[in-house]
Amino acid sequence: MQKTVLCFSLLVFLSACENSTPGEPSVVTPQETPELQEKVIYGSDNRKDLYEVKSTLQRRLADSTVALIKEENLQEGAEITRISAQTFRRSYNLCASERFGEQENAAFCSGSLVAPDVIATAGHCVRSVRDCSETRFVFGYAIKSAGVQPREVPSTEVYRCAEIIHSEVLATGSDFALIKLDRPVNNHAVLKTRKSGSVKFGASLVVIGHPVGLPTKIAAGAKVRSATEAEHFVANLDTYGGNSGSAVFNSSGVIEGILVRGDTDFVYQGSCTVSNRCTSTGCRGEDVTRITRILPYL
Fold it and tell me: Could you give the percent of the chain with pLDDT greater than 70?
């Protein structure tokens, strides 16, 4: 998600900044927050790896989502593409208590298949032709068996950018991009999107994407907390940077929106970092661009 960040210092980062890099998590230091009240896990942590998910519907939806990975992290061969990345723990100086620390995090954003050759993602993930040309759209970056890291995928699952159909990041809250792929996708189903009307307050939601760039995580158990804004709604989704562009589904498996913004991801606990946590009704919530915003461009 795109998030405002106060300057911080970590051994794994080499420079300070005023805003988080698009798609990357944000960290608040103890000096910046005397009370660690801002959180990103709402209630229980509902994130699951693909192999842990029993729902046939959720597994089918996940099959039509993609990881956005920079070309520099891939070795593309004729048949197999290899994926290289650091572990989550090393990348973010995690405390030992944090989940998924030994998994690798190659992705920088998430996306979903909304037409045979079109991916929907967050606008701040792909702003320019150069951004698009340096990005690969990878299906199947997921942990399908316990303990098995997805360090390679068939090259047929790796797609390139042919064109940015539309990309916008507006002050009104709309933040999305539609990317035309270099060829049609034949082995993954096009996802259903809401065509009219709007999601209601209290509606149940599921988000599927790549928090902090990790292999696919499916997080159910969320609800719409506010639906008053014209171009986005707010929900208590368990999401991080890297989830930017993730499809947010209703209980029927229809896309309601694209995850774009949220609260601070991590805070320091001593010399290492931990996830922010809050109650299901606490903190600011996570912002989701309404999927109906993309319809004029499809």
Answer: 84
Q: So what's the pLDDT on residue 238?
A: 86
Dist. CA 32–CA 39, nearest whole Å: 14
pLDDT under 50 in the chain at which residues?
3-22, 24-39
Phi-psi region of 23 (alpha: psi -120 to 50; beta: other; left: phi over 0): left
State the residue range of the domain holding 276.
27-297
CATH number at residue 223: 2.40.10.120
The rounded distance, in Å, linking the Cα atoms of 275 and 264 is 9
pLDDT at 189: 99
The encoded tokens of residue 229 equal 């804004």
Q: Do 185 and 74 touch, CB atoms closer than 8 A? A: no
Q: Is residue 91 one of the residues assigned to a domain?
A: yes
Angstrom distance (rounded) from CA 193 to CA 295:
9
Position 78 in a domain: yes
